[in-house]
Write a structure and sequence with these properties.
Helix content: 25-40%
Strand content: 15-25%
Distance between the termini: 52 Å
Radius of gyration: 23 Å
Largest sheet: 6 strands, mixed
CATH superfamily of the largest domain: Creatinase/methionine aminopeptidase superfamily
Shape: elongated
CATH topology of the largest domain: Creatine Amidinohydrolase
Number of domains: 2
Number of helices: 11
Number of strands: 18
Length: 363
């Protein structure tokens, strides 16, 4: 049995617990997770006994290669995907079907309802995402490899960083190097933020020169074989400003405290609290304004979320980022981020870049 078939069977078990007899999966990432198909504009109808992938003629060959075990419904050029969906739902003779409410638009839901008035449509949120939160060995290995690609590219960046480069030039070079080392894409738009602009957690690289400040924050990740990595480091390019080493030490201590707290059964909010306690005790609590981290996998932001009021317990197989930061407007920001696997008896840091202060200095 293929791993994708195993995932579909796990989803069926989850549907039975939720008293759902059929689901229309419209989130493209979820379709990929359940079928192995990497194209777009395609849906999966999953019932207790059957499954059919709805797609279009552009992908006929790709579908045969990536998911040969699946029944297909290929739309013709004269009908759109919603019309094909109605046709497949009527053929399945379903009395009710669940949809992914976070993906399907209200207009599309209404259109299906009008075309198939006898069908009861119910909303669901996050069912497939629950399954995706627990990674199998193959998924963990792909995330690990995406981390290696990102680290190799970062090593080149360190060796070639020059004061006359702009933030955007550095970000472009970093993403180019990731592709040279095997990435299929960047995991997200890379952040390169010089000095005061590092106080913006999601700063956009611009024309500011690396030499304008003695430090620069870099937040980047690679997409390898479908799966992604996510890292952050701060590089020191000149004489460090007053209090830099103090703030760096606080962030690193918070980072390490959070990782130490990671193990099965621990609530996500408690991992966040472990880092936040360190930063608050140092007097910078109000300067740590985002959640500690998030799950990564096929997407760079997925379940679970390491943040306040997140009572969900960690489970073995989850992969999360740990990224505490302190941001001082007008001065700058420091964030340290690594990717961490929850193991059966604790945790494993999947990324291997040094994160101490000495390693931050660029020769």
């Amino acid at each position: 049995m293929s791993r994708h078939q195993q995932r579909r069977d796990k989803l069926r078990k989850l549907l039975r617990r939720e008293d759902i007899n059929a689901i229309l999966v419209t989130n493209e990432t979820n379709v990929t997770y359940l079928t192995g198909f990497t194209g777009d504009s395609s849906y999966l109808l999953l019932t207790a006994d059957d499954e059919v992938l709805l797609s279009d003629p552009r992908y006929t060959t790709q579908l045969a290669e990536e998911c040969p075990d699946l029944e297909l419904a290929i739309r013709t050029p004269t009908i759109n995907v919603t019309e094909l969906t109605v046709k497949v739902l009527k053929k399945a003779k379903l009395s009710r079907v669940a949809i992914e409410a976070s993906t399907m638009s209200v207009a599309q839901k209404d259109q299906i309802g009008r075309a198939h008035p006898k069908l009861q449509i119910t909303n669901t949120i996050g069912l497939v995402e629950q399954l995706r939160a627990i990674k199998d060995r193959d998924e963990v290995q792909r995330i690990r490899e995406a981390g290696r690609i990102a680290e190799k590219a970062f090593a080149v960046l360190r060796a070639t960083l020059r004061p006359e480069q702009t933030e955007k030039q550095v970000a472009d070079q970093l993403e180019y190097q990731m592709r040279l080392f095997g990435a299929t894409d960047r995991a997200f738009a890379s952040i390169v933020a010089v000095g005061p602009w590092a106080a913006l957690p999601h700063a956009t690289p611009g024309n500011r020169l690396i030499g304008q400040s003695p430090f620069v924050l870099v937040d980047w990740g690679a997409r390898g074989d479908q799966y992604v990595s996510d890292l952050t480091r701060v590089l020191v390019t000149g004489k460090i400003p007053a209090k830099f080493d103090k703030i760096f030490a606080v962030v690193l201590k918070a980072h390490d405290a959070a990782i130490e707290a990671i193990r099965p059964g621990v609530a996500c909010q408690d991992v966040d609290a472990a880092a936040r306690k360190v930063i608050s005790k140092a007097g910078y609590g109000r300067r740590f304004g985002h959640a500690l981290g998030h799950g990564i996998g096929l997407e760079v932001h997925e379940a679970p979320r390491l943040g306040g009021k997140q009572k969900q317990p960690l489970k073995a197989g989850m992969v999360v980022t740990v990224e505490p930061g302190i941001y001082l407007p007008g001065w700058g920001g420091i964030r340290i981020e690594d990717d961490v696997l929850v193991t059966r008896d604790g945790h494993e840091v999947l990324t291997s870049l040094p994160n101490d202060l000495d390693s931050a200095f660029v020769a």
